[in-house]
Write a structure and sequence with these properties.
Helices cover 8% and strands 47% of the residues. The chain is mostly beta strands. It has a 5-stranded mixed barrel with strand order 1-2-3-5-4. The two termini are 24 Å apart.
């Protein structure tokens, strides 16, 4: 099964080797048929502590690293090559 990749903004980098990434998605409201934004925060593993608050980050699913961390960030150089 392929691993999911999500893109979002880093909202916190206070933990050691951990960043919190806010991922937004849009959906259509079932009754009002209006576009609504929903967001969710993911704790992700950042081995090199290279991401700072406000950075755009891509995260990928991984095996559990701790109680909250089930995602890891893709290295910055890999993101530059993908674009």
């Amino acid at each position: 099964m392929p691993k999911r990749i999500l893109e979002g903004v880093v909202v916190s980098d206070k933990g050691d080797k951990t960043v919190v990434v806010k991922v937004e998605r849009t959906l259509l409201h079932p009754l009002f048929k209006k576009t609504v934004r929903r967001s969710k925060k993911y704790h992700a593993h950042d081995e090199t502590n290279s991401y700072k608050a406000g950075d755009l980050a891509r995260i990928v699913e991984c095996a559990p690293k701790s109680k909250l961390k089930r995602w890891e960030v893709l290295p910055k150089d890999a993101q530059a090559q993908a674009q």
